[in-house]
Amino acid sequence: MKSISIKNLKEHFDEEVVVSGFVDNIRNLQWVQFVIIRDNESKVQVTIEKSEEKNKEMVELIENLPLESTVKITGKLVESPKVKLNGMEIIPETIEVTSKSLEELPFNFKDLDNVNIDTRLDYRFIDLRNEKNTLIFQIQSELTKYMREYLYNNEFTEIHTPKLIGAASESGSEVFEVKYFDRKAYLAQSPQFYKQMAMSAGLNRIFEVAPVFRAENSNTSRHATEFTGFDVEFSYIDSYEDVMNLEAELITYAFEKISDKYKDKIKEVFGMDLVVPKLPFPKMKLADIYKELEERYGYKVEESEKTDLTTEAEKLCYKLSKDMFDHEFLLVTDYPADKRAFYHMRDENGVLLGYDLLWRGVEITSGAQRENRYDELVKNAEEKGLKDDVKFYLEFFKYGCPPHGGFGIGLDRLTMLLLGIPSVKETEFLFRGPNRLNP
Ligand code: ATP
Q1: Pairing mode, if any, of strands 362-369 and 404-410?
Q2: Which candidate, 180, 202, 188, 139, places its Cα nearest to that of 160?
Q3: What's the CA gap between 326 and 291, in Å, rounded?
């Protein structure tokens, strides 16, 4: 017989069932033993009467069994309203120990409030046994599923681009260098060039969910040296408005689905209200944001800093967007192009035809229409002092390449904001930062 997920047990009252999981707790009383079994989503009580002769071996086994060992239980499932845990219990026939926990746990994963984050990450496999932590990844998985689903429904193709690349390129973000036989290679800081190659190849609408590497020594709550990028690119757009609109629809679609399934759970476990955003998302020009921030909240910065949003301004944008538009998201447009990557299209005044999307005061995306005209692109690359490293990329635009645009969402950041988690350290399965490469 196959094991059943504990959450599905209620369909099997009065049947013989098999359940596998960790030994979560044991209460060894005078006449009875209560053993709580836990799988990734739920728990069930196993009740062993000590007085019954046939239980003798089982009773002894449980007496010597360390918590967090794993077991496979075969027995009869009975409805028992007196049992607090889901009103049911298993009366076991056999208990097989499938692995024994050999040492005392390094910390109590059921109460993480006072456990240092580094200790938690050192023992991430134990940290993740915490119910709340398990839930983070279940929700992240479904969020990705629905984001993918939206794109599949809209005729996108999922592609897989290389992460080992031959030239350190792009926008100036630092890249990791790796030894590649007798030469150097680099880890991709984004799939940007290859997403655009797909446009040149006529693939039309593509996306990728994959690792992104950044050799940036930033120790903030929202930066990792490796994270998961959710990257989208599509052709025959009329302007970057099309890119913003598609992203807003994608997020709204996924949030609606997550809300249907997890709204109450997110409130109960994380204390966060999941608000399904209204379409269209509000948008503001960078310069207008600074004007409003000053007028409304007295926030001032030097003119020279106004070429991008400061971290503080980003935070204030949450309040601004709520006050002005009753919305949690804000699309920020009209960045000066010279601060941005050379492949973004700009208008005749040097204004970027692109945007950043902020949610709850943090940037979650950059997006833009891309420069698809070869001569313009070469000029922009040369202005940034890029030449040989982007030669292969410029080739993509020599033989016809449709107008296109796209965006990249940081999945770990999105999950962090969705669940109100303090740092991406907890929304990456295994965090990678300047001081962390293990386990
Ligand atoms: P930031 O200014 O916050 O460092 P960025 O401008 O370098 O971000 P992009 O290169 O536009 O970011 O990357 C697209 C998205 O990927 C960002 O909006 C963000 O959600 C996510 N992202 C970028 N860098 C990181 C990082 N180091 N760790 C986690 N997520 C990141």
Answers
A1: antiparallel
A2: 188
A3: 19
Backbone dihedral region for residue 246 (phi beyond 0: left; psi -120 to 50: alpha; all else: beta): alpha
Q: How far is CA 264 from CA 40, 258, 267, in A?
A: 19, 10, 5
* Measured distance CA(37)–CA(22) in Å, rounded: 6
Integer-rounded Cα radius of gyration of the chain: 27
Q: Is the CB of 227 under 6 A from ligand 1?
A: yes
Report whether pLDDT(402) > 70. Answer: yes
Q: Is the peptide bond before 277 cis (omega within 30 degrees of 0)?
A: no
- Give the three-class secondary structure for 357: strand
pLDDT at residue 386 in the model: 87
**Nearest CA residue ID for atom 27, ligand 1:** 223
**Which residue among 227, 329, 370, 424 has the greatest number of ligand 1 atoms within 8 angstroms of its CB, and so is best to mutate?**
227
Q: Indicate the pLDDT class of residue 171, thresholds 50, 70 and 90.
A: low
Give me the mean pLDDT over the 213-225 stretch: 94
Buried b (16+ CB within 10 A) or exposed e, 371-387: bbebeebbebbeebebe
Check if 293 has its Cβ closer than 6 Å to any atom of ligand 1.
Answer: no
Prior bond of 191 cis (ω within 30°):
no
Provide the 8-state DSSP code for 166.
Answer: S
Query: Is the four-CA dihedral 153, 156, 159, 161 of positive or negative sign?
Result: negative
Tokens of 331: 């699309």
Secondary-structure percent of the chain, ordered helix, strand, coil, rounded to 5: 35, 25, 40
Q: What is the pLDDT of residue 174?
A: 87
**pLDDT over 70 (residue 170):** no
Cross-strand bridge partners of residue 237: none
pLDDT beyond 90 at 329? yes
Q: What is the mean pLDDT of residues 235-248?
A: 98
Q: Is 363 a catalytic residue?
A: yes
- Rounded to 10°, the helix 411-419/240-270 angle is 40
Is 413 an annotated catalytic residue?
A: yes
What number of other Cβ atoms are within 10 A of residue 3's Cβ? Answer: 14
What are the residue ranges of helices labelled H in 158-285? 192-200, 240-270
Task: Name the H helices within 217-328.
Answer: 240-270, 286-297, 311-325
Question: In the predicted model, what is the mean pLDDT of residues 197-219?
Answer: 97
Across residues 390-401, what is the average pLDDT? Answer: 96
Q: Tell me how far the alpha carbon of residue 262 lies from the centroid of ligand 1, in angstroms.
A: 26
pTM comes to 0.95
Q: For residue 388, what pLDDT is reported? A: 82
